Amino acid sequence: MINLDEINTVYFDVLKEIGNIGAGNATTALAKMLDMKIDMKVPNVQLLEFKDLAAVISSEDEPVMGILLEVESDIAGSMMFFLELDSAHYLVNKLMFKDPDCRDEFTEIELSALKEIGNIISGSYLSALSSLTNMTITSSIPYLCIDMAGAILSVPAIEFGKYGDKALLIQTEFGDEVRINGYFILLPELDSYEKILNSLGIQI
Questions:
Q1: What's the CATH code of the domain at 20?
Q2: 187: domain range?
Q3: What is the share, in percent, of the chain residues with pLDDT greater than 90?
Q4: How far apart are CA 18 and CA 15, in angstroms?
Q5: Which strand (E) or helix (H) includes residue 188?
Q6: Is the distance from CB of 184 to CB of 172 less than 8 angstroms?
Q7: What's the pTM?
Q8: Which of 45, 127, 171, 192 could pair covalently with 188 via S-S, beta carbons 3.0-4.6 A apart?
Q9: Which pLDDT tens digit goes with each residue over 73-96?
Q10: Within a domain: residue 204?
């Protein structure tokens, strides 16, 4: 069984490549959805202890938008996508042709649009993982929540014993004239990490 505490450079490079391709796919999908040019900085990929994730994503008292999905088929686990609230407002305002600076409470239609944005971006990462590993990977219907990062992360934390104590965090900065900060978290079950790496010819 793979031990994430002893993960070496080769394994981590593979995980980083998944992050790079996934972020590139997400940028393309977002640009098409919003019909605009979007640039992307090279993603920052880290393997972090689960307890440290919330502090990296946002300050303790700052709410964020979180999308949570279950990963199914050839591998199992959870995945999440977080957006800073300013970024979420900007994206939905762009999509709805509203004033970019509008910070009104999200309507039901806007929440539905945000869920779709999160679904498309998350799907881009899963597609990258699927293409690299040649595995069938599907996801559940997304669950959207706006709350403090720690509160949202408490949902998968309940079952986190299955996954070990480390998670892959990919921080991606998209942007045109406005910076959009997103955080993608992949939590495969431990045997799924092993399947991912074995499928790429990396023996544990």
A1: 3.40.1550.10
A2: 4-199
A3: 3
A4: 5
A5: strand 179-188
A6: yes
A7: 0.82
A8: 192
A9: 888 888 888 988 888 888 888 888
A10: no
